[in-house]
Amino acid sequence: MQLPTYLQSGLHADLDDLETKVLILMSRNYSDAEIAQVLVTDADAIEQTVDRLFNKLGVTSRLAATVWMMNRRRHQGPASSATLAQPWDGTDID
Hints:
By secondary structure, the chain is mainly alpha-helical. The chain has a domain at 14-75: Winged helix-like DNA-binding domain superfamily/Winged helix DNA-binding domain (Arc Repressor Mutant, subunit A, Orthogonal Bundle), CATH 1.10.10. The chain contains six helices and no strands. It is globular. It starts with a helix and ends in a 10-residue tail after the last helix.
């Protein structure tokens, strides 16, 4: 999976690749079961990943995690503003 530029490096919460993928899908309103299906794993593994993700971000809800991601995207420096202007459509998740 090719991650959006704004999530490729320098994540303040030090998210691993799986956590980043889960965050992206979660922000698109996927359920744990749907995320598990897309990422070819089981829902229990996704639930554990969501718990770890919440702890790293210091949030307690999917909405708060999505807001964190959107704020991360919005606060990128000017060097990446051209890339940020192009929305990521999520089609490259394998």
